[in-house]
Design brief:
Elements (H helix, E strand, L loop, with lengths): L4 H8 L4 E2 L1 E5 L6 E5 L2 E6 L2 E8 L3 H9 L1 E6 L5 H7 L16 E3 L5 E3 L4 E13 L2 E13 L6 E4 L2 E4 L8
Antiparallel strand pairs: 1-11, 2-3, 2-6, 4-5, 5-10, 6-9, 7-8, 9-10, 11-12
């Protein structure tokens, strides 16, 4: 017996996840989406993966350019997550007008105020149902240790506090 999509979604809502914006493309053709399906694959050499719906414009841009960035959002950046998540009806390059961006090694857009960011080159792709699992070699990584990362839990934004209470 297989789980229904409804049962799967109901159970997944209880799995806390970091909130990121995955971006790709040069200025004038940039696009991105809000993602929680991101994780590390290996540290040496550094690789991570993102899951992207094949119907999204950003998916095509990632495959076309061979590069993407993962921007980890901080507490207080919920509106930016909504903007890139499609909740405000804003698409493509217009999504980038609400924040400051720069680039690192690959040219993929990096959010200046990101809690952490990973600049990646695509190395592998695996098709699963409606999505591709895209694995990238991390070319550059940045972090702001004092920033509290934004999380998503039970259909709402949240934040995590380490057991040691660093934030």
């Amino acid at each position: 017996m297989n789980a229904t999509p409804e049962a799967f979604v109901a159970a997944m809502r209880l799995l806390p996840a970091g909130v990121t914006i995955v971006t790709s493309g040069p200025v004038g053709r940039r696009n991105g989406f809000t993602a929680t399906a991101v994780c590390s694959v290996a540290a040496d050499p550094p690789h991570l993966l993102v899951c992207a719906n094949r119907g999204m414009e950003t998916h095509g841009t990632i495959l076309e350019t061979g590069h993407f960035a993962v921007n980890v959002l901080s507490l207080g950046q919920e509106a930016l997550a909504d903007r890139f998540g499609g909740r405000l009806g804003i698409d493509g390059e217009a999504r980038f007008q609400a924040a400051d961006w720069h680039t690192l090694a690959s040219g993929a857009p990096i959010l200046v105020s990101a809690c952490a960011a990973f600049d990646c080159r695509v190395t592998q792709r695996l098709t699963v149902a409606t999505h591709d699992v895209i694995i990238g070699r991390v070319l550059a990584a940045t972090d702001r240790e004092a920033a509290a990362p934004l999380a998503y839990l039970d259909r709402d934004y949240a934040f995590c506090v380490p057991a040691g209470g660093r934030y």
